[in-house]
Amino acid sequence: MEQEYIITVFSENKVGLLSQITTVFTCRNVNIESLTTSESALTGIHKFTIVVRTGPDRVDKLVRQVEKKIDVLKVFVYTSDEVVQQEIALYKVTRSRNVETTRQGAQCPHSGDRRDYIVVEKTGHKAETQALFRLLQPFGVQQFVRSGTVAIIKSRRELLNEYLEEIDRLRAEPMTKKKDSFFRTFKTQKSRKPWQRSISAESKRRS
Fold first, then answer.
1. DSSP-assigned states of every residue in 70-130
2. What does the pLDDT profile of the chain (207 residues) look like in tens digits?
3. How far is CA 180 from the centre of its chain?
4. SS3 category, 206
5. In degrees rounded to 5, what are phi and psi of residue 16?
6. 133: alpha, beta or left? (left if phi > 0; alpha if psi -120 to 50)
7. What residues contact residue 21 under an 8 Å CB cut-off, 6+ apart?
């Protein structure tokens, strides 16, 4: 059964990586509903937020393929109820009293005022930004643009931090302990899907 998944990809900031990632989705015939990229909270690490509608088996294969990319550090997948997600929309609308009344009723800020138009801003879920577009459309929407989804997880810590800390801990251990730790972690997590593992114990070695 298809549903919405939010995929977060953490990577180094390398030229051409975006093309490599989107090619994975194209090859598996999965349409990207939304894609945003920006710096993460960690210096030197960028974050891609990708929204897709697909099934659990297919998203599993997508994660595996994206994680094979050399500049990708880690990929996590969440369902909609596991994250807080928002997007911003801008509406350039012909100025009128009706538009102002609608804007105030929706409690939306505005900017870029001119004599003949007003730019209305709306932050919320896709359904909310689309609903406001339908309200403003009869009054003359000259331009309408919507950003991609941005999302943060509801858990207390960023899972990437835990993953990197685990990698550092394993590298600091003697080889015998490292092997024992790896197989112990693998044993407890092997029955779970890759995107459900909070910490993947060095699932991909990096030189």
1. TTEEEEEEEEGGGEEEEEEEEEEEE--HHHHHHHHHTT--EE---SSEEEEEEEE-HHHHH
2. 889 999 999 998 888 999 999 999 999 999 999 999 988 888 888 999 999 999 999 999 999 999 999 899 899 999 988 999 999 999 999 999 999 999 999 889 988 778 889 999 999 998 999 999 999 999 999 999 999 899 988 877 667 767 777 777 777 776 555 445 544 554 444 444 444 444 343 344 444
3. 34
4. coil
5. 90, -5
6. alpha
7. 9, 48, 50, 66, 69, 72
Angle at 149 between CA 166 and CA 108, to 5 degrees: 130
- Give the tokens for residue 116: 């003949």
Instruction: Round to whole Å and give the CA distance between 165 and 171.
Output: 10
Q: Please, which residues have CB within 8 angstroms of residue 102's CB and are 6 or more apart in sequence?
A: 132, 135, 136, 139
The answer to whether the Cα torsion of 132, 138, 141, 145 is positive or negative is positive
